[in-house]
User: Fold this.
Amino acid sequence: MPTPVIEFSLLDRLRSAHHWVVFTGAGVSAESGIPTFRDKQTGLWERFAAHELATPEAFHRDPALVWGWYEWRRALVLRAQPNPAHVAIAQLATLVPQLTLITQNVDDLHERAGSVNVLHLHGELMRARCERCRQHFPYPAEMPAIPEGGARIEPPVCTQCGARIRPGVVWFGETLPEREWLTARTAANQCDALLCIGTSSVVQPAASLTRLAIAHGAITVQINPNVTDIDDEVTCSLRGRAGEIVPELIEQLRAMI
Ligand code: NAD
Ligand code: ZN
Assistant:
């Protein structure tokens, strides 16, 4: 796929933006080797509907299946490295007056690339907690060997109250973490520019953030190799991979700022 030309007029408008929002989805981590949900699926993703594993009901029905599936995903993330898109986003924060980074991802690749104060709307794989008293569960330093696609593993038990430990992610049917969601909405409502990177923009309410920014007149730039529902609504769609386009965009901006 040829890299799209980034128009000067777009760069010129972006240059004057004070408050930036960068809103990322699974696509920003795809080039780090972490599978997305809605692209071509492999392994467990093929055998189970992600939807059926990522619910509180699924965890209660079969805790070992769900815990083992998340352990496999955690192992994938531990092996993965941030890619040039994660790195460029961390650099952008040092170039502009204000930047709010909002992600739907449960991995920690933004943090490992140097981003701080990342708003994780869907929780974090690395932050498991007790399902009753919410005590944080410290994962052992050693990751157990997990076969490709996951395995049945009984979840650990809370040392404080004896209930089960659950993955630290937000499941279908659960509400988003309140502080993160409020901060994200406020930022989307006030920002001058929003970059929407690697998200299919179908998971609500997160996808509504881009529309909030559009509604109040922010410049909105989507980076995605595929067509999405918001193609016709954003100021500009840059068609291609995040790992190529985001560094290019930031490089061109840096030259102008
Ligand atoms: P999604 O799977 O629905 O969509 C991924 C999007 O990324 C697609 O539009 C696809 O075209 C695009 N994409 C694929 N490769 C790309 C690349 N190299 N560069 C840029 N874009 C690329 O993911 P979503 O919109 O984030 O929503 C699904 C949910 O899945 C989220 O809630 C998230 O919590 C969860 N999830 C997270 C991870 C992770 O933490 N890395 C991985 C899979 C799913
Ligand atoms: Zn507990």
User: Anything to note?
Assistant: The radius of gyration is 19 Å.
